[in-house]
TrEMBL record:
PANTHER family: ALPHA-L-ARABINOFURANOSIDASE C-RELATED (PTHR43576), INTRACELLULAR EXO-ALPHA-L-ARABINOFURANOSIDASE 2 (PTHR43576:SF2). Residues 325-515 form the Alpha-L-arabinofuranosidase C-terminal domain. It catalyses: Hydrolysis of terminal non-reducing alpha-L-arabinofuranoside residues in alpha-L-arabinosides. Keywords: Carbohydrate metabolism, Glycosidase, Hydrolase, Signal. It comes from the Bacteria. Gene3D superfamilies: Glycosidases, Golgi alpha-mannosidase II. The lineage of its organism: Bacteria, Pseudomonadati, Bacteroidota, Cytophagia, Cytophagales. This is non-reducing end alpha-L-arabinofuranosidase.
Amino acid sequence: MSVFRFLAALALAAPLAAGAQPQEGASQTVQLTVQPGAPKLLISKHIQGQFAEHLGRCIYGGFWVEPSLNVPKQGRIRMDIVEALRKIHVPNLRWPGGCFADTYHWHDGVGPAAQRPKMLNLWWGNTLEDNSFGTHEFMELCGLLGTEPYLAANVGSGTVQEMSNWMEYLNSNEDTPMVQERKKNGHPEPYHVSWWGIGNESWGCGGNMTPEYYSDVYKRYATFAHDYPGTPLKRIVSGANGDDANWTEVCMKNIGPGRMWGLTLHYYTLPTGSWSGSKGKATGFGEDMYFSTLRNALKMDAIVTRHAAIMDKYDKAKKVALLVDEWGVWTDVEPGTNPGFLYQQNTLRDALVAGTTLNIFNNHCDRVRGANLAQAVNVLQALVLTDKEKMLLTPTYHVFDLYQVHQDAEYLPLQFQSPDYAFGGEKIPALNASASKDKNGAVHISLVNLDPKNALTLETALPGVSWKTVTGRLLTSASVSDYNTFDKPNNIKLADFKGAKKKGDKLALTLPPKSVVVVELK
Ligand code: AHR
């Protein structure tokens, strides 16, 4: 357990001391030390992966639009979205689901679009899809984004042969019927897709399997998931639901670390904490729902710690990646929208959750080497929302913009004791953070102050780091429930951060309430 994690856990467990609340608006001083990482670890860029499912208006009506829509397009791919996502350097994009993946038959989505059969999206709103967005269109989108494709194979309702054919279609260069078909469909060269999820949520919508049964099914599918020249596969086990430690235990034991590159985990933050009844409103919430959302989001740290400890038992060398390939805030849908489309607004609160979660992943980078926010466009905690021609970037998008400096940078552990943010007799750590050094030697510290009323003053020591200047960027707003609208898309946006300065060899900074700040020291 890192010092940061240990101290954060202490703060979570401690009872609330009477009178411990600082005066509103007062600033508490935190002593923070940026330590040299030993041994050296990288923060994988894949922690900042995204997810695009055939769900609501993520693909159809999101990335993939009607020819008549008056927006910049390449074919039917919406280029204003592509431009926005290119700026944040999306490292991988997971597709086609989610629950949808275990109903998807890839062969229906290749060949002349007019001849592709239609399909009912039974998981998400029973919409009729025409399969016009299929494998080639997804690969074209990944090419435009400059991102790694991460495919989820259909294990729930597909066959081993179907998955194996998809791999051959994408990755082989021999004169087989699959390759001839790919060439006929316009792509002579192999696509080289190496990231393959073997099923999705196999404990639930992917087939309601037991971990024992799934382990055998995985081994069968993985046996026929072949490496083709130049494309060694990253075979990924469909992992646990939240804190279901038994799923991870059984998969690690029965499948064994040698047969997998990665193992996944899904955890969503529900404001109310309950799947039944209301999950909580996306906007217009009070401090009670703000606090409980953060408390539930912070559980990610304990959940990752628990699964990582089980993985350590079977994989001491930490070869297997833990991929949190679905995470994010899940609220009630926007009033008046299709409940099956999972369309929700996105507030400063969600941005604070994003910053906090990415800090947690960075601080677990010895094991967490991939993650996918759910989802990229118009679904759940989206980066981008669209309304016909209009498009906006959510506060969560801006957090990914800030944090891209950590991609493949060297991890620097932090040591500090967080003050509390207390509400309704409970408390959580107000401050969370992570740090890294990039390949040019610049140090970046990402800081989140969850306290909606009180600033935090930081005195930061950086033994072994020589630096002269500090700059930074900040995300905040007047209220944690503020959001961007199609009429005011820049209501919440990044600003220069002026609250940091060099004091001797220390960094002094004041972190405003409810803010995400990333500073750069050079
Ligand atoms: O992201 C929405 C859904 O959440 C996914 O389809 C599924 O995997 C998860 O339950």
